[in-house]
Amino acid sequence: MALAFRVLSLFLLVCTLRVFSEHxxxxxxxxxxxxxxxxxxxxxxxxxxxxxxxFNLRRDVYMRIAVLVRSLNEDGPWxxxxxPWSRLYHWRxxxxxxxxxxxxxxxxxxxxxxxFVPVMEFHEFLEVNKKNTIDExxxxxxxxxxxxxxxxxxxxxxxxxxxxxWNPESQHWYxxxxxxxxxxxxxxxxxxSVMGHAGILKxxxxxxxxxxxxxLDRAETVLHDRYGDAVFWQVRRSxxxxxxxxxxxxxxxxxxxxxxxxxxxTVVEKSWKNMKRKHGDALxxxxxxxxxxxxxxxxxxxxxxxxxxxxxxxxxxxxxKHSLNxxxxxxxxxxxxxxxxxxxxxxxxxxxxxxxxxxxRKDFKDGGVAIIDQWICAHARLFVGTRESTFSFRIQDExxxxxxxxxxxxxxxxxxxxxxxxxxxxxxxEY
Length: 431
Fold this sequence. Notes:
By secondary structure, the chain is of the alpha/beta class. It has helices at about 1-40, 55-70, 110-115, 120-130, 200-205, 230-240, 245-255, 260-265, 295-300, 310-320, 335-345, 360-380, 390-400; strands at about 45, 80, 120, 135, 135-140, 155, 165, 170-175, 185, 190-195, 215, 285-290, 325-330, 350, 380-385.
């Protein structure tokens, strides 16, 4: 009997210890999950660019920061907050309504962007944040003393220039903030001198700040981590234009340029991840497309921009060489210059220019009209651009993604005095 009691007592002790052990382990798991949950609360990275930079350079800066955010997500969840489009240099139309606080969704397919990195619009960030404040702003700047050699480095320094204002009453900083300057404020602002690639900011963002929202101003100061590699092309491929803009461009191609994706071999897959084209897969529509940059380029890049008469001669020669009788012109030239160019080309060729309706211009602004031009140029049998123009560069990118023969993409107009007429560097797509 005594033995039976001892056995029963031992059995109950073991059961009690097991329950205690299981309870303690479960409690440990809950504590761990709680800590992990805290860690997993998303952080937000915002950025802005020098106000003087144009639309296509800003697209390039997005790529640099998107790669940085994807790298940050290896250590915890970050979301990239897209800076609204406002008041760019080339957006001068006065009859389209305010060209500010424009969301990215008007120009780009956000679902496509999110296949590379988590993104949200700035107004969505304000809603999620539940307060019109950004925790910390870091204004990126070059080193005041310049540099003798290239090296990766960054230091907190006094501001060389400071676009932000301190309000001693609220103890907050005020600035442009994408046109929300009367509604948004920063709790902290510092200047950082930096030399290097975007990735140099990762250790700082992970170790030197625990702020939930961090903004990098003058983000163009840092460079691409790996220009032209597979990751570079992944983020570039994800930057698809919004479907509504592509549809308008496609309708114009079909009506005036005898161009459709089926005939041109430029069908776009639902996801950019499934599009891996080889050079020569795309044929393109039966027309020559040219991006003729004028405006300030005539003055600041005089040696690169041909006269209208010589530009017309080059276009006619290329059209004849490739047996094309239609020419599409994307240009920032005023209408009188376009008509002059068209006159120089003559009646042997049909010359087209996309002319949006008044409603289109109101709906899609100058930026949307420019994207439609780029989309039409991207589908031409032959493309000719302007030297050192980011507008031309982005068209060349699109054509690489679609799978065009590089000989039909990397071409430019030359000045009549330029005897060498070097053609653009060929940045080929990598998968």
